[in-house]
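INPUT
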Amino acid sequence: MTISTTPVPEPVVADRPPEPVRRPARHARLREWWLGAALVLPALALAVAFKLVPLGRGVATSLESSSGFDGTSFAGADNYVRMFDDPVVRSSFRNALLVVATLPVWVVLPLVLAVLIHQQAPGWKFFRAVYFIPYTVAPIVVGIMFRQILAPDGPINALLRRVGLEPLAIEWLNGRYSALFSLVAVALWSFFGLGVMTYLAGLATIPGETLEAAYLDGAGFWRRLFHVVVPMLRPTVAYWSVLCASGVLIWLFPLIYALTQGGPGDATMLPEYLVFLTTFQFLDRGYGSAIGIALFVFVAVLSIFSVRHMFTEGTRKPR
Amino acid sequence: MNRRTAARLGRYLLTFALVVVAVAAVYPLLFTVVSSLKTQAGFAEDPLGLPAGITLDNYLEAFRRMDMPRLLLNSLITTVGGLVLSVLAALLVAYAVTKLRFRGGKLVFLLIIVTLTIPSQAIIYPLYQTVLDLGMSGEYQGLILAYAAFGLPLGTYQLAGYFQQVPDELIEAARVDGAGHFTILFRLLAPIATPALAALAIFNFVWMWNDLLLPLVIMGGSDSKTLMVGVSLLSGQYDVSVPLVSAGLIVALLPVLVIYLVFQRQLVSGALAGSGK
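OUTPUT
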């Protein structure tokens, strides 16, 4: 194959389709196949080496008993059986469920903001720019930042005291439920901008007149939102919901790392943090891998829907 | 209250809601900036108000203690490397599966986007083992290749979707005029996909620069550790001094923030164009 350096002809959009090209000879086809194979090779190598092989090894390790610096031995399903009786594992998945229960907020809040921006509320460009800023801040930075803000004498509590809500000025990161609540709130702060952007992209695909009619119509805002906008936006809403549902299982690691380290007790222990803790802190690699595989199964089940959507989108010919 | 006043009132309320969210989005950053400009004594006296006098000592101290230039360099090398490699690999795959007569292309495409379901958190130890076996632990290339692999599914998906929209007749016409495959890919298709490429580049830059788990495990405590790993050490080590920690945080978040603000328009148009199907 040669790299041609002839300048590209102006991409003229022909009025009539060009003459059909003669069916290429057999060997030309074969050459094209080899070229295709060569082109996908780097990507395949990356995907295999850094995703599929580690996944396979993870499964293998999860069947071993390997703790500390001792050797490993085959343990069958022991690690998985152990998970069911382990209170920490159970509370980590229960906490994950509690976080998933906040999903409606994750789905609706960015939607409302996106619709308000999309109907060009005053200063909408400014708001669109500002709302994405939190997402650009690294989660580990967000975590440390909010540890200062949620500190017992931090600005949040100072504000609450000043407006007379003294009883609400609690130790946010140190309560059984307040810690998990704070963690979710901080995560929401960090990710809602991505949701707004996603919805705006979805809204842009709907013809303007259709939406304008909905916006101007006399019906109340919430009714319009759920009866007109949401049905039209269904693919985007579905995509974002799935992303959030699988995301809460994997996005929170740096926040937990910086904010609570899973505590108090295991109030903010989530599977993604537990895998790290078990493997690298407690050096229980077999068990850590088993929890990791369980986490993978949960994430895969949730995100297989978005993969299906992506596959059809990526292989569909334009209309 | 007539209809018009009601409408106007509604508009005010709406703007007010948007403003409240904007304040919530920005306040934590402002608090951190303000704290970083206070002396330790000044912060202890008045943790919430504006500083009495502005000092940059915290920034100097953060640079000195954290070896900031080295951390910034490490982050830049690994982020740019991972970003370029993943976008390049995605471009090649997207071309092969959408524009070549390539049997098995769909299967390859599926295989690559399916890896999206494998989060780094779930396979972190075997991934670390693999990087170790390749002799790349603590090395730039280890993290770069891992970043490239994790950025691949989304990039492949977006570019394939984009290329799919380009009529095959256009490709045939270029080929008849003697254009080779690489000319078609880099001089014809890539320019058409610029909005998607720009959005992809910014998106990858943000997550690779900001990621903690991969560099934490692959780079560990080596000299090649990234800025975020360095920042994560802040959370335990000098916890007492909020102003100093704040200065470190601002330095860590500034590069991405600047890139975002500069390329904001491209990101928005790319995000909008990418889904315009």
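end of record. Chain B touches chain A through 122 residues (CB under 8 Å).
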